Write the structure tokens for this entry.
Amino acid sequence: MNSLKNTLIRCFLPHPTNRSELGVAPRILVVSTTAMGDTLWATPALSNLRLHFPKAYIAVLTSPTGREILENNPHLDQIILLKEPLLPRLLSMTKTLKREKFDVALIMHISQRLVLPLCSFSRIPRIIGTKGINKGLDDLLTDPLDARFEHEIERRQKILDRLNVPQTVQTLSYYVQPQERIAAREYIASASTRNQPLIAIHPGSKDVFRRWPADCFVAVACALQKKFGCEIFLTGSPSERRLLQKIGQRIPNSQIICSSSIRFLAAVIEQMDLVLSNDTGPMHLACALNRPTIGIYVPTDPRICGPHAATCATVIYREPTCQPCMKRRCRDSFCFLQIGTQEVIEACSKTLESLKKNAVSQNFDLDR
């Protein structure tokens, strides 16, 4: 079926245009149309593009989630929103991209089959991306790169090598606005009862197979409360409300932040002394905000999707017990039982003790 779809798509594609070299002020389209973590992984590349091409016009084609992540990014001139379903909007989107007359498209990560054909329909002379992750449409890349075992941030940076862009910046970036920071401070001040360390725990994830057991998060939170008198904030999306409530009712005086706004979540995370999370987008958001972070990994490999060049992050990792890992088909991630609560408590305690000793954390005083 996928082969048939691709054959039909190719029937309507124009002939490839001639490749062109970029000038000092190229028009660059960065394509990243997936989730929070995938979008954040593109931010070092955006920084490096701007450093190398200060006069370039840099736009990004992204999802609604990506738009929230990239709003106010100073390295971008334009955010073009990709709305789904794409098929009925294909003609209008093609007109939009043609009008911009981009010199090159950098395919960072896509999940929709029609996005790469969209770039071809828009007659962008150069389309650079990694082979093997384009739903069988690698031949639409004018500059295909071989896939290698490397971190996803490194893979995105390698795409820039074709433009001779140095990998100067390695860390993620996110830009909280002053009014967002003020709102988060006010919210935390109203929810907090003591001037104590603030800990955000993110127990969910879009994929169930990435979740450490809820009982384990409860045990860690209660232990940290007893040892440090911490304020516990449970974060998640509206779809995770039941999970947060299930955990929250077992952690005394905990607060639930169940918001669909990434901007608000980011502003809250920025105020935290520690973030404890599964392998999911908000963990990478915490790294982008340079907050002390503990990430729990089992079925996913942190060498590919873990914190990258983040000195504030600690990863607790065990290899999956099932080979091959069933991933989304797994309904009982018993491989997570390899990570005990005491190990996580010790990692969190070490981070909090270090923050207190070195006076790094500013959240003991909410007037940041």
